[in-house]
Every structure is written in structure tokens, then in C-alpha cells.
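Subject: Predicted fold for KIB1-4 beta-propeller domain-containing protein, 313 residues

User T.R. writes:
Posting the sequence so we have a shared reference for the thread.
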Amino acid sequence: MELEEYKKEKYAESHRPPFSVEQQQHPWLVMCDGDVLEKQTFFSVSKNQYYMRRIPELKEKIIRAYADEWLVLESLHSSDCYLWNIISNDKIQLPPLPECKILNCALLSAPPNDPECQDVNPPTFYFCKPGYNEEFHKQDAHSIIETESGGLWTTSRLLCLDPDNDSGRITITPMSNESPNVRKYLDMGRLLNCIIQSCDDDTLLYVHLFFNGKNHRMPYNFLVFQFDFAKERWIETENIGEIAIFISHYTRTGTSCSTRGTNLNKESIYFIEDRHLYVYNLITHSISLSLPCPHVSKKASHMHWLPLPSQKK
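User M.O. replies:
I've generated the C-alpha cells; pasting them so everyone works from the same file.
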């Protein structure tokens, strides 16, 4: 596999995101690096250009979740967290995060102006309604669902979460008792999986990534499953049509967008590993490799695909 080289255009540093410069119909790749994450690089995967920024709101902050242009930001040094609108610069303070040894991820169920919006953290569920609660509700996942692998939370079983802010309880309904069948690759030493929603409809996609090579750091193969709601099971597919899937290793989350009218590759999965951008074609099973932002430190580990409302219009 040869490293592809592209001509990148470097822009002057600014305190605002580059979205006013060009609106595009695809997610942006955001890389945060520096000792206190004071530097951000926004990469346009369609135009092959990056934009360097120093945004005060993102300094010393970890991006935990997002919904449209709203980000859930957590302080590096405290339990402080808040919602930040990357377009309007509006902020909504959240209650202090609970003191947990491991905070795996956060889910923003909807934009905060949506009445159904709630911020949720598994596998012990902490959730709150932005702008209403002074502290997070807490619910032990082990008391309401049967987890796998000695109690580890996994995304291989599809669950429906229904938080009730008034009672402080979450109702969890299993949608399927079957996990996607990935047994043919059980000999792989490292894997990653996530569930995303297709941009064209309400189809749920389960993406399973396998690694090989030295230290198991090279993406090797992808499996994609679609959830059949009528049969309540996952069905493997080798055709995703005119869409592209974007996977974030750091947050174990993903998104998708239409490739129509863009320079993006259809039937493809875009994935970042160690600053390298891999593009996997589901039809040909080929992988291309590039280094989109060579100036970003090799130690940078906070990398996210951010979907914005422009891609949904």
C-alpha cells in the first residue's frame, strides 16, 4: 500500500471554524493536538484542504458527542462540561460530570433546542436534560439489561433507550437478541465496531473493522450489516449505494453522507488511524492511504468526523 500525496492548501490561523469559508455536503475531519489541545485542524475531505485554527472554546476540551452543530465538551482538568454551538458560538452549561474511572462516551440524543434532547453516558447511565437538571441522573445498566463479556458494554446488541427526565429512569428495550455474524474473522487480534444511521433513510448500519500488520495497527477489512426491523436481525451487505461512511477510532462513532454531487467515493468507508486517512471500497475491497494533515503531531489522538446541518439540506 503506497501513501498517496496531495497538494494541500494551508490557511492562516483563526479563532473561528472555517465553515463560513465554504459550506459542504459532507462531514469535516477535526484533529485536536498540542499540550492542552490548543490547536485544531479542520480537513475538507472533498476538496483536500486543511484549515488551521486556535479556537478558545476547544482549548483544554475533549469532544465527547455531537448533534448537528452542537458539541458536548468536557474539560481536561475538571468535571466541567457544556454544550457549544460550533456555528453560533452559543453555550449551554451542563451539570458537573460524575467522578468515574472510565467515561466511555456520551450520547446527545438530539440538538439541545429539541424537547427530546438528553445527554447520556453508558454503561452506568448518567443522563440529564440540558438547561434543566443541576446534576446527572444515575442508573445502573446491570440492573436493567444483560451485558456481555463479564459486564462490558458492547454495541453488538441493538437497544432502544428511552430516558424519562421526570422519573430519572431509562427504559431499555432490546431490539434484537442476535449480534452481527463476524465469526469468520475471530482470529484477528484487534477490532472496532460502531452503529450509525444511513444519511438517505432510517436504515441502521453496523460497521465492523478488523486490523492486522505490525502491532495490529493497519485496517484490514470491513464488514457492513443493515438492520432488518421486520426480522429483527442484522444482515450483511456488500452494497451501500451512493453514500460514504466515516468512522472515528477515538470516539468509536460514525456518520454517513451522500456522495452525489461531491468528489467523495461511493460504496466507501473513510477511516482515520494514526493521522492517516484510509479509504476502503466495499466493492473492490481495495484500500487507499493518505496523510491529509502532516503538520499534526503524531501524538494527536483526538480526531473526529463532525457532521453539520449543511449535509442534510
